[in-house]
Write a structure and sequence with these properties.
With 169 residues, the protein is an alpha+beta fold. It is flat. A hairpin with a 6-residue loop joins strand 2 and strand 3. The chain contains three helices and eight strands, in the order E-E-E-H-E-E-E-E-H-E-H. The strands form two sheets. Strands 3-2-1-4-8 form a five-stranded antiparallel sheet. A three-stranded antiparallel sheet has the order 5-6-7. The chain has a single domain, classed as 2-Layer Sandwich (Methyl-cpg-binding Protein 2, Chain A).
């Protein structure tokens, strides 16, 4: 299964944004860094038909060490396979919430407008005839699942404190 991961602190990326993409080899289970969001989406949209293997990367085999290890130095999220590729002219953005409970998906237009749901996409497509060839099904707001074991310890403590305070009278 493909996965995405994000660093906790990256000054160039929007706070909470995915900044590194990785795919797990279906043969050796090693993680390989995918160089761009576009390449990752290309792999993800055909994952069930064409599972990722190490040899899809140039000069890489299953005998090579993993590019990255799944551990708590990063917050990892599990993506769904076979989501459609982001339509040309748009960028799909995933942002993790500050409490790490889940991610939010947005489609960003060429002008920077963020579309948050199918209703907004529909309105945008109706107003911009250059996208008349696109359908609502081309936009998927499904989000990856945050892997709890990689959530930063300080966030888990805050969650526990919040949970404890709700139960007190």
């Amino acid at each position: 299964m493909n996965k995405k991961q994000k660093t906790q602190h990256d000054s160039k990326a929007r706070r909470g944004a995915i900044d590194l993409y990785a795919a797990q080899c279906s043969q050796c289970d090693k993680w390989r860094i995918i160089t761009s969001q576009e390449e990752y989406e290309d792999l993800r949209c055909r994952f069930l038909e064409e599972p990722f293997t190490c040899d899809r990367k140039p000069n890489v085999t299953c005998d090579d060490p993993a590019d990255v290890e799944r551990d708590a130095t990063r917050t990892w999220v599990m993506d769904k396979p076979n989501l459609p590729k982001t339509p040309e002219g748009f960028k799909r953005e995933l942002i993790v919430r500050s409490d790490y409970s889940k991610l939010d998906a947005y489609y960003v237009t060429a002008t920077g407008k963020r579309l948050r749901c199918h209703r907004e996409v529909k309105q945008y497509l109706e107003k911009h005839i250059e996208y008349k060839h696109l359908k609502l099904e081309d936009f998927d707001f499904s989000v990856p699942k945050v892997m709890n074991e990689t959530i930063p310890a300080q966030i888990k403590v805050k969650r526990a404190e919040k949970s404890d305070s709700k139960g007190k009278i």
